[in-house]
Specification:
286 residues, Deoxyribonuclease I, Chain A, six-stranded mixed beta sheet, 6 helices, 28% strand, globular, Endonuclease/exonuclease/phosphatase family metal-dependent hydrolase
Length: 286
């Protein structure tokens, strides 16, 4: 067993790429079509580990440090789901380290799902051990994409902000992974609140490690009019969902055509999906 694993690791190291990109570029990405409804998804993929029981946190914990052949099979299953959506927010991705076989999981999922634009945000760089990242996948060309380090006592949390459509009145998507600490969440959401204050059409997506009621009544988001999913939209743990930790929150200007927790247990979180349409008349602003 040891020799087999050692040979696998040696093969991975020999095939390690010398450079890793963080963005696919936008030249080949279609322009944003404002008249379309947009299929959104947020998913904490737990670096491709298939967790379906609490005891797997112990028995499969080694996969957070070492590569595993079945991880690629699980990533392919995730990509099959992602291929059905237009804009995807990913949390707990690996940007290309030993445990992922030096594969940028954001890029891998984008290419496997046939989604032309991807952006990887590296939040915690542990070298060859781990490349903790968030990811954006998009079928549309954004006006711009910016990444932000979120405040907190322990560094390593981040947000990606992508703007689409009209420069003067854009659709703004904020993709994030918040800390577990409530005090850190207060600072992080205060920062996010400042970033979205001047925009009318806003979507917040990601693993926020808190229920919507707490987010919208006990944090700086209470100053917004964002609309959450129902309180029953439980996403964690995936094998027995009891907590609503993953969210898509939207401005009242956006019409929610459909929203759901997707029953797709390939991580310890379930994905959250929403179909939204821009307000009537928005197309004429282009």
């Amino acid at each position: 067993m040891y020799k087999r694993i050692r040979n696998q690791l040696n093969g991975i190291l020999r095939n390690q790429e010398s450079s890793r990109g963080t963005c696919s570029g936008s030249e080949h990405v279609p322009e944003f079509e404002a008249h379309r409804h947009i299929r959104l998804l947020t998913f904490n993929i737990q670096v491709g580990i298939n967790t379906s029981s609490y005891h797997h946190y112990l028995t499969r914990s080694w996969q957070h440090f070492l590569p595993n052949r079945r991880r690629y099979e699980n990533l392919d299953r995730i990509a099959t789901l992602l291929s059905q959506y237009d804009v995807v927010a990913l949390q707990e991705c690996d940007g290309g380290s030993l445990r992922s076989g030096y594969i940028n999981q954001v890029q891998y999922l984008a290419e496997a799902a046939g989604i032309p634009y991807w952006y990887q945000q590296l939040n915690r760089n542990l070298g060859q051990i781990a490349q903790h990242s968030n990811g954006l996948l998009s079928r549309f060309r954004p006006l711009d994409v910016t990444e932000h380090k979120l405040p907190g006592l322990i560094p390593g949390r981040g947000a990606i902000i992508a703007r689409y459509g009209d420069e003067e009145d854009p659709l703004v998507l904020v993709l994030m992974h918040l800390s577990l600490s409530k005090s850190a969440q207060q600072k992080q959401l205060g920062f996010i609140r400042e970033q979205i204050a001047s925009y009318r059409h806003v979507v917040l997506m990601g693993d926020m490690n808190a229920h919507a009621e707490q987010l919208l009544t006990r944090t700086p988001l209470k100053e917004t009019d964002l609309i959450p999913l129902p309180d029953t939209a439980h996403s964690f743990p995936s094998w027995r969902p009891e907590k609503a930790l993953d969210h898509i929150l939207v401005s009242p200007s956006l019409e929610i055509r459909r929203s759901e927790v997707v029953s797709y247990p390939v991580s310890d979180h379930l994905p959250i999906a929403m179909d939204v349409a821009l307000p009537k008349g928005y197309l004429e602003t282009f």
